[in-house]
Every structure is written in C-alpha cells, then in structure tokens.
Amino acid sequence: MTSVRPAPVARVRGARLSGVDVARAVALLGMMAAHVGGITDHLDWVDPSSWSAVVNGRSSSLFAVLAGVSVGLVSGRTTPPGPPEITRVRARLAIRAVLIVMIGVALMLLGTPVYVILPTYGVLFLLVLPALRWPPWAVFSAAGACALLSAPFAIAIVPLFAGTSSFEQQLGLVYPVVTFLTYVLVGLGVARSGLEARSTQVALLASGIVVATTAYVVGALVAPIPADGNAFPGVPYVPQGSTAGQAAAQVFLSPRDHSSSIVDVVGTIGVALAVIGLSSLLVDGRARIVQRIAFPLVAIGSMPLSIYALHLVVIAAVPGLPDGLATWWGFAVGAALFAMLWQRFLGRGPLERLIAHIASTVPR
C-alpha cells in the first residue's frame, strides 16, 4: 500500500506575485480615499463630479477578495497539501485570524471615526479554513450560495444590533459576515485557478468587466438608488411607501454600495476580479523597468495590515484632519515612502512580521 506524503513546503510558499501586491495597494488607497478624501456619497455615472465615489464599497470588497487570494496562495496555490501539512497551515491561519481580530479591536478602541474591517476580516479567515482543500468549482459554488443569502442575512441580523453603539455595529453589521465570506471564497477560488497564468489573468479582467457592467446596468434599471435614502452601511434600504415589488428590487437588486444586494455583491466582485487581472497582467513577469515603476505600489501591497493600521492611527492622532484630495495625497505619498523604506531596509512589514513570527511557532 502506497503511503501518502505531504506536499513539500516549497509548493505551499511559491514565488510572490507582484500583481497581487499592486491590487492590494489599490484597495488600500481606495479605502484611504473613502476615509479622508472627501469624496461624494453616491456614484452617478452621468455626473463626472461623483465618480470619486467609485471607491465606496468596492475598496473594502477588493480587500476581502484579496484576503481570499492570500489564503489560497499560502495554502498551496493550485494544489493544497494533504495531511499532515494542511493541518499546520490551518493552525497558522487560525493564529493569524485571532491576532488580526485583536489588532482590529485595538484600532477600534482608538475611537477613529472609521468603520474598521479587521475584526470581520479575521473571522473570515477562520470561516474559510474548512474550504482549503475544496476544488475550485466547490469554492465558487459556495460563494454563489453566500451571494444569494447575503441580503436576507444582512436584514436578519439588524434586530441583534438595535440600540447598540458604533463600536458594536462594526462587529458584524457594517461588514455582514455572509456578504464578505462571498468575497473571500471568490478570492480563494481565484488563487486555486492558477493566478500565475496569463490566460487566467486575461479571463479575470474580461469576466470582471462583463460581470460588473451587467450587474450595475441591471441594478440601475430595475432598482435605481433612492435620491432621499437614509441607508446604513451593510444593510439593504427600502424607502417608505415602496410597493412589494419595489421593496424586493431594492433588497436584492440595488446597485448601492454596501447594500449587500446580489447586484452589489456581484458587481463589486466583478470590479475586484478586473483589478486583480489587470494588475497581474501589467506587472507580473514584466521587464525590470516595469517592476521599478510599480515598486511604490508593490511595497504598499506587501504590508497591507501595517499600512491599514498606520493610516487609522494617523487619523486618530490628528482629529481635526480635513477631508479632501490634498489629505488623501498626503496619506498616499506617506504610505508609499514608509513602505518603500521599510521594505528596502527591514523587509517584511512590522505587523506582518510580528504575526508571521507568532504563527511560525506551530510545529510541523
């Protein structure tokens, strides 16, 4: 009887994909814009002055899809290892998840006027652990099921947060777990599909554009965003006086960002796939001059947890910080300089290094 051997560690680690780092940087810079850029609240494609609102919702969803990509990359890429190595991978990811939750709660305690995604981000790492050895079709099927359940789940949990403060609302209401689990599962499926291949990158870019365009066109036609909406992030919104049909359309087909509707979830997934595909096509395997041009973004994306936490600390430390394009540029340039210098002289980001050191205590 032939014994089963665990996959070698080299297969699990693999070479770093700079395109994924660039996509992470896009997500981080987009979230910075949402926090300090003074952008408009609602996106209207016929009004160019509102186009800055494209970062709303799409940046955090891109960040979550890339979390799934990261889980897939560190757990074997296209070929996850078998026992006992997969047990060690799961244990290390579980430790990372707990530490990310702790860091997120610490950032929330700073009182920063920003909805912190990290606690939900850490919980998602735990929820996706059982799927590490699923084939891509099973991962994408689970993501599809979560997308369908996203809006009903977001509505169902609202009573649980009645009378709660902003602190509690960040722990599941603003970033509904089922909605964001959809994003992480999609990212895991992308990593399992062979992100290194040019054909995969082209497919991601093309399918992302088609999916996002179709979703938002359907949403805009069937469930246009109410002009006088008083919506809360993460929760579907139905204006008073809506008919049953209009209410159903707003719940399931609204194109509003952070609405948890099917259109919102599918549309933001399409945007995320297009960004990942385009970033990979432009950077991975290209000439050295391209790598040098992309280095500021690669550096930011190589330490997403550190950059995310640092920008929230700065916001908390400067309470009177004005919102606007100049402030965003200050954050963007500051993040790039910090990341490039840190990576050049110290390597891995500070929080990434700390978490990796703690997680590495798991024995083989």
Key structural traits:
globular, 65% helix, 364 residues, disordered N terminus, mainly alpha
Structural class: mainly alpha
Q: How many strands, what sense, and barrel or not for the largest sheet?
A: none
Low-confidence stretches: 1-13
Taken as a percent bin, the fraction of beta residues is under 5%
Cα gyration radius (Å): 20 Å
* Overall geometric form: globular
Order of helices and strands: HHHHHHHHHHHHHHH
Oligomer: single chain
Q: With helices defined by DSSP (H or I, 4 residues minimum), what is the helix count?
A: 15
Give the N-to-C terminal Cα separation. 24 Å
Blueprint (SSEs and pairs):
Elements: H1 9-13, H2 18-36, H3 58-74, H4 85-109, H5 118-127, H6 136-156, H7 166-169, H8 177-192, H9 198-222, H10 244-253, H11 262-283, H12 288-302, H13 304-317, H14 325-346, H15 350-359
Structure overview:
The protein is mostly helical. The protein contains 15 helices and no strands. It has helices at 9-13, 18-36, 58-74, 85-109, 118-127, 136-156, 166-169, 177-192, 198-222, 244-253, 262-283, 288-302, 304-317, 325-346, 350-359. The longest helix has 25 residues, at 85-109. The two termini are 24 Å apart. Residues 1-13 have low confidence and may be disordered.
